[in-house]
Amino acid sequence: MIFLLLFNFLCYFSVNGTPHPMKIAVISGYGTLDSDMQTELQNSLKWFQSAFLVNKSSNPVTIKDVFQSIPEYQKFSSVLVQTHLHRQNIKLQDVQQLLEVADFTVFVIAQDPRRCARDPDLLAEAMPIVPPLATMSICLKNNPRHRNPSLDSRFFFDLFRHEILHGLGYGMIIDKSSLTHRPSEKYIWRNSNGIGHPEMRQFLDFDDFALKKAKSHFGCDKMKGIDADGERKNHLNEYIFGNELMTTHLEASGNIFSWISVGIIERTFNGKEQWYHINRTFVAPEANQYSYGRNFGCDFLQRSCHEFIKITEKLRPNMSIAPFCSKNNRNKCFKLPGSELVYKMSDKECEMRRVIGDESVSSCGGNEHKSHSLCFLMTQSTIYHLQTDKQQQRRCPIIKHLPVNYEVVQCPRAG
Ligand SMILES: *[C@@H]1O[C@H](CO)[C@@H](O)[C@H](O)[C@H]1NC(C)=O
Ligand SMILES: *[C@@H]1O[C@H](CO)[C@@H](O)[C@H](O)[C@H]1NC(C)=O
Ligand SMILES: *[C@@H]1O[C@H](CO)[C@@H](O)[C@H](O)[C@H]1NC(C)=O
User: Fold this and answer.
1) Which of 15, 281, 283, when mutated, tests ligand 2's pocket best, judged by the most ligand atoms within 8 Å of its CB?
2) Among 1.25.40.10, 3.30.990.10, 3.90.132.10, 3.90.226.10, what is the CATH number of 176-410?
3) Which among 133, 182, 266, 274 could disulfide-bond with 129, CB atoms 3.0 to 4.6 Å apart, if both were Cys?
């Protein structure tokens, strides 16, 4: 039977009640993507299969549910199925069987070409329908390869991981119960001249597992919540979380699925029971690499970058606070993952860069409904450009040309 081929069940005929590796099928009525994009889609499904353990869903979906919630699928007679193992065209009527055996199914839907054209930074969107069913759309015209032909295909791997995580419910399932809801908070952002203006901080819901991890990562016991991208609460805040996989912007040089995201997705329930379990052994090598903001402390989380820099220079002069420019970075060195080369950190070349934080409306993905959108932009180093008036007031001194995945190391002794 074709589905045995698609999923190779022999590997995990799972015992009822024991979580098993999650099998995701991506179904498209629109044919294949560019070949390396399609390959990275498959690699991302392999990653989910290794990283996620799930119980069989107690309320599987049927083809009728699909036709009802994704009506465009009524018009296809055959579809392309991608699993972590295979890619194959099947007849639409056979999708029913696939829905029965997959743990989660993602349907690729048409993207509105006007939206893609209006917003060249919009790359993809995904949203849960009824778990275990989700949709994903992709602005093919906005493929970042067109602007940056040397872009590593790893970027697409991160893109699909990011989107499918949303499809699984990350930052998307809205629960108004007081148990999981984090109220927002007012604070004052002070500029370098000391003038302050009021800002709002929003926190992700479902953070009770993640907050513990974040407190120890940043070294701040009084951290109040996991800073979100704004009122939508779909993402981790870009300013606070940098190259984490689930921030609003993907970095060209790689994005990390951290213990903080592990905590968020494990707390994203489908019904009463915890559904997703992360295989910690599998994700540890990646999650442990996450170093952005490590030990920056409460001043980083609660004050502006200008105050953070000043306070740290005074109280902890030995701590490097790259990517922020500071005399603290003098005599500090960094290296890149997988390389032994050590570079001197220099903040001679410094630029005031706009901070992407907790804006409630952005130029990209300012859509009001539950759908999630991912914006991206990059040149050699990642440059952010969301244009809102508010953002212009918030700029931070950032070291130019510092790759995002640097790791601070001891400088070799001269001599
Ligand atoms: C999986 O489902 C079984 C049966 O519904 C339940 O007893 C068990 O606790 C679940 N396991 C996990 C880890 O959620
Ligand atoms: C978790 O991942 C490790 C490393 O990849 C693997 O050896 C182990 O079998 C996995 N555990 C489960 C329960 O799948
Ligand atoms: C901090 O730096 C000073 C001067 O470079 C050095 O003497 C001191 O040992 C350092 N302290 C720590 C804790 O590394």
Assistant:
1) 281
2) 3.90.132.10
3) 133
Confidence of residue 10 (pLDDT cuts 50, 70, 90): very low
Ligand nearest to the CA of 320: 3
Report CA(279)–ligand 2 centroid distance (Å).
6
State the Cα–Cα distance between residues 20 and 114, nearest whole angstrom: 41
- Contact 274 CB / ligand 1 (< 6 Å): yes
Return the C-alpha torsion angle 225, 226, 229, 235, nearest 10: -140
From the CB of 20, is ligand 1 less than 6 Å away? Answer: no
Token representation of residue 373: 């959108």
Q: How would you classify the pairing of strands 24-28 and 104-108?
A: parallel
Instruction: Report domain extents, the chain.
Output: 2-168, 176-410
pLDDT tier at 358 (50, 70, 90 boundaries)? low
Q: Measuring from atom 5 of ligand 1, which residue has the nearest CA?
A: 17
Q: Which residue has the higher pLDDT, 228 or 354?
A: 228
| pTM (two decimals) | 0.88
Q: Which residue has the tokens 């992407």?
A: 356
pLDDT of 353 reads: 86
